[in-house]
Design goal:
Structural class: mainly alpha
Keywords: DNA-binding, Sigma factor, Transcription, Transcription regulation
CATH superfamily of the largest domain: RNA polymerase sigma factor, region 2, helix turn helix motif
InterPro entries: RNA_pol_sigma-70-like, RNA_pol_sigma-70_dom, RNA_pol_sigma70_ECF_CS, RNA_pol_sigma70_r2, RNA_pol_sigma70_r4_t2, RNA_pol_sigma_r2, RNA_pol_sigma_r3/r4-like, WH-like_DNA-bd_sf
Pfam families: Sigma70_r2, Sigma70_r4_2
Organism: Olleya marilimosa
Family: Belongs to the sigma-70 factor family. ECF subfamily.
CATH topology of the largest domain: Rna Polymerase Sigma Factor, Chain: A
CATH architecture of the largest domain: Orthogonal Bundle
Length: about 180
């Protein structure tokens, strides 16, 4: 952990400094976490809800953070889990499969006033949706957020070699999908 992260964690775990430090944490990570979540859940409104849940969970559990990983890795892991839980909960509420829920979210992108993508962006999102969950996560985090494999390894608790293989497979599947559609 960097010196700055270590200091921030100490402040977050201090009752007298927690609120001010939490505002700093939100300022530092809000945008990156929002886009990470948005790539998973697709919808702006859902991403906002999941982001809020993520920060609530962080606030409640910051004293459990031991510093074994980077702070941002811990945040990304929480955000990822919250986003996946959100998707599964939505699918269950609508009594549809996770894949159908994802298709529905992608189809709703075109009517989302916050989505500024072209047709190719919709096609890319549809291609990503055909991937298994783990490949989707790896592809989104590597392609859209340009995270290093070492960072992905910490966040997803998977070896760098496995992540490289997942990203390579995901890229090939997406390329094949785009050529076919």
């Amino acid at each position: 952990m960097s010196e700055t992260e270590t200091l921030l964690v100490q402040q977050l775990q201090s009752e007298s400094q927690k609120n001010a430090a939490f505002k700093t944490l939100i300022t530092l990570y809000k945008e990156r976490l929002y886009w990470h979540i948005r790539h998973i859940v697709k919808s702006h409104d859902d991403a906002d809800d999941v982001l809020q849940n993520t920060f609530i969970k962080v606030f409640k559990n910051i004293n459990k953070f031991k510093g074994d990983s980077q702070l941002y890795s811990w945040l990304y892991r929480i955000a990822t889990n919250e986003a996946l839980t959100h998707l599964k909960r939505n699918a269950k509420l609508k009594n549809i499969t996770n894949e159908d829920a994802q298709d529905l979210a992608i189809n709703n992108l075109q009517s989302d006033v916050y989505f500024e993508g072209e047709d190719i962006q919709i096609k890319l999102q549809k291609a990503i949706a055909t991937l298994p969950e783990k490949q989707q996560l790896v592809f989104n985090m590597k392609y859209f957020q340009d995270l290093k494999y070492s960072e992905l390894s910490e966040i997803l608790d998977t070896s760098e070699g496995a992540l490289k293989a997942s990203y390579h497979l995901a890229s090939k599947k997406i390329e094949a999908y785009l050529k076919a559609h």
